[in-house]
Amino acid sequence: MAPPPEAVFAPDERIDDLVRQARRPVVEMVTERFGTPNRLVAWEALPVDYGVLEGRVVEAYPETDGTCWRLKVELDAVPEFPKDWPAPLLQGVAVAFLSFGGKPVSAGGLVDEGENRVGLTVQRFDPGTGVLELAQRLGSPPSAGDRLRLVGHKLQRGRVAYMRHCVHCHGVAGDGNGPTAPYLNPRPRDYRRGIFKFTSTGPNERPTRDDLKRTIRQGIPGTYMPSFFLLDDGDVEAIVEYVRFLAMRGEFERRLVDELILDYSTEAVAQRVDAGEERSDILDELETFLRDELPETAAFEVERIANAWRRVERPEALVVPKTPRTPDTFESRARGRKLFLSKTLKCVDCHGPTGRGDGPMTEDYQLNTATNEYYPFPGLVDAWGHPIRPRNLTRGIYRGGRRPLDIYRRIYVGIKGTPMPSSAAALNEEQIWDLVNYVLSIPYETADTRRQLDAVAAQLTASEK
Hints:
Layout: H1 20-34, E1 35-36, E2 39-40, E3 52-62, E4 68-75, E5 94-97, E6 99-100, E7 103-104, E8 111-113, E9 116-118, E10 120-126, E11 131-138, E12 147-151, H2 153-165, H3 167-170, H4 209-218, H5 233-264, H6 266-274, H7 279-292, H8 294-311, H9 330-341, H10 347-351, E13 365-368, E14 373-378, E15 380-381, E16 387-388, H11 404-413, H12 429-441, H13 447-464
Antiparallel strand pairs: 1-2, 3-4, 3-12, 4-11, 5-10, 5-12, 6-7, 8-9, 10-11, 13-14, 15-16
């Protein structure tokens, strides 16, 4: 019986649009820096908690030819691994020697083997005996007391837990295209753009680790994303790091494609040839770009990606209103309803005048800005090109959370990747709280209540004049 095919990361959907000479370097660069699903790479340029274990060599077991691949080690701390871990323990985790033969090792922890610098990984580890088997052979054994670092055990645990609980919807690459995804509405999240709908951070910012934990723990009401409230804390934390890893991988790949798609897609090259350029000259230009400019571009882009994810872990990145919530009075709700119906916010364009999610935008045809053509179906569309409906606020189901603070953030920030815009520039904090109070009252609203609210709002407006 043939072994099953090895899991692969689905590439960016546009990568096949590139000419072969541009496509291959992108695939190779992404694979070199992130690895494959079963052979992950802990790229330390990224702010991912891969999981780091340090320890010392107790004894080495050299072969008769002087090479060595088995060591007895003593780790400073051994994490508690799940009992049902499906692969040999720590398999694929990177090994970096901090000292070798009693001497410090240069940055990166790679052992100098003559002309080659060999990166090492774990084949298996037995925590009971302390025996560590390497996937590669060392040219000579380390000395007792040499320090080493193992990098990637949390990422490996995240991959295992993700493949068990998440992959069937979100896909191996986090592209939202798992085997059950075509049957779900709304579609599962595609992480690869770094866009997450429900966050505690400002407009256009990435989610915090706590945002992702909350989504995993609580699920997303009104969708097929369930609550994993009973999942082990260690698994949740590991899944968070793995999801962040997949998102950064997708962003990096996407930006490399962005650099090449305008000039070196199959269509662009054909147009340039039709315009009089020689194909050989175009490919020579591409080769020069790949050799001289792409590495620098890649370094610049990964720093931008890393900074975006680092930034949101700072306290000042959180959207925290300075003004306490306005008391939930009838007058506050009336002011909120007035804002809801206003032409400034245009809430009713999507949510409708009674909040049922039946505004006129749900029947209009939207322009696809990528193709400059209208979508073939009416209604709203998200950043991934999927049709979506505005929330029916009368049901009292709020996907990003039902706390007043959650609703405040949805209004202030908007819902990323959707047509729901930020109102930060249009409203002050007191107005947002009024709108929060009104939105939370909509499930209990009647026609009489609406008339009373409108009358109170008219009185408040008259008194302000």
